[in-house]
Structure formats: C-alpha cells, structure tokens
Write a structure and sequence with these properties.
13% strand; alpha/beta; 44% helix; 8 helices; two-stranded parallel ribbon; TIM Barrel; 240 residues; 6-stranded parallel beta sheet
Length: 240
C-alpha cells in the first residue's frame, strides 16, 4: 500500500510541476523566455489578440500622445482580415509579434500543428510588414519544451510577462484594470525588476471585441505614471 501511495504522490508532484512549467508566466522550466528588464524603471507595454477595430487604433492615438513604444502580439487570422491596421501599428513605430494563427492552447496541439500555427502567423505578418518577425507570445502563456524549440527553429524569441491587467474579464472596468497594472509595477519595482505588462487590444473569439476598458486604463496609466519610468519594446528585454 505504501509504495502505491508514494507512486501516486510522485505522479501528482510531477503533474503539478508540469502544469506550473506550462502555464506560469515566470517559469523557465520549459525553456528560456523573455520576462522583464533588470532595470526597475523600464516598462514593456504589450497588447495581445489584435488587430481589432476600433480599439487598436484608439490605443495607437494614446501611445502617440505620450510618445510610448509598445509591442502588439497579433493573431494571424485577424491579420489577414485587417492588414490595414497592422500597417498602421508598424508605421507608428511599434513592435509586432507572433501570437499564432488561431490562438489555440499549444500544450494540447500536435508538434506539427504547433509548427503550422507559428509558421503561418509569421508568414502572413511578414508578407504585410516586409520584414522578419522575431518575437512570439504563446496564447494563454501555455507552452511546453517542444513548443519553445519550434519557436527557436523558426527564429522566434518567446516573450511572457510579469504584470497582468486581467482586462479580458468583462467585469473589470478601466479603474480596476489600472489598479492591477499599477500594483504589478510596484511589485516588480520592489523586487528591482522592470515591468512587462500584458494587456489586450482584441479578443481571440473575433474582431470587434470591446476593449474600451483597456483603452481607458492605458489612457489614465500613461497620464499618471511616474516620470522616472520609460517604456521599451520587447526587443530591449534580455532572456533570464
């Protein structure tokens, strides 16, 4: 009986470790990813799930007003439908990254499908941008070692986050999203780290998702942020 219990406990421990490695934004057990800067005054502001009309455009207006450079991780299926928005983001000087073609849970996809999701998204982006896409954020943050190996083979650097705005939750208004972000920034600064903020300019279920709360939170955040902070693209982060 005792050996069976020990084996069960070991299996649970392994499963727990695997889940942490696959889903925790801070875990490096599946392979190295970019998370945050070593400079507590640096902030990487990122947006997932676009392009999304009209909210991507509204965010571009706010970012331009405050001279802030951000990174947009885009879904390839939406990129095909709204290449005009993709070009607007590029023209404004922001970074654009790969967020797969269809936003699946990559940890449950076959290796062949993972490669298709990443390669096809890079291809459609590069056709529009006329330049190489070098950064990738896994949907939901979910990854496994072979996902990161495939990204590396395709020339994609995985990017996670260390501050999350929970702006995908319908009940969260602009003030609550801003509070999540500001608390996250403060937490990273206490740990002598820069913040890498994950927000959403779209939603994976389709173009047209309401992100007005995110727009409001970003407007207020940039209007009231500490003057010592400066914003960077994910290309200025370094792997841990």
């Amino acid at each position: 009986m005792l050996p069976e219990l020990a084996a069960t406990a070991a299996a649970i421990a392994v499963a727990g470790t695997s889940a942490f490695a696959s889903l925790s934004a801070s875990s490096q057990l599946c392979g190295p990813t970019l998370i945050g800067s070593s400079d507590p005054d640096e902030i990487a502001l990122t947006f997932d799930d676009g392009p999304n009309d009209p909210y991507t455009g509204r965010l571009l207006e706010i970012l331009a007003k405050h001279n802030v450079r951000a990174t947009f991780f885009m879904i390839g299926g939406f990129v095909r439908r709204r290449p005009d928005i993709v070009r607007e983001v590029q023209a404004a000087g922001h970074m654009i990254g790969n967020h797969t073609m269809t936003h699946p849970w990559l940890v449950v996809e076959s290796p062949a499908q993972v490669r298709r999701e990443l390669a096809d998204c890079s291809s459609v982006l590069e056709d529009i941008l006329g330049e190489k896409v070098g950064y990738f954020r896994p949907p939901h943050g979910a990854r496994r070692p072979d996902v990161l190996r495939t990204a590396d083979e395709l020339g994609l650097q995985p990017v996670m986050w260390n501050v999350f705005g929970y702006d995908w939750r319908p009940r969260n208004d602009a003030a609550r999203i801003q509070r999540y972000v500001e608390n996250g920034i403060a937490r990273q600064r206490r740990a002598a780290r820069g913040a890498n903020i994950a927000l959403h300019d779209g939603g994976h279920s389709g173009i047209g998702q309401d992100r007005s709360a995110t727009v409001g939170a970003v407007r207020s955040l940039l209007s009231n942020c500490d003057a010592s902070m400066h914003f960077i693209g994910v290309d200025q982060l370094r792997a841990r």
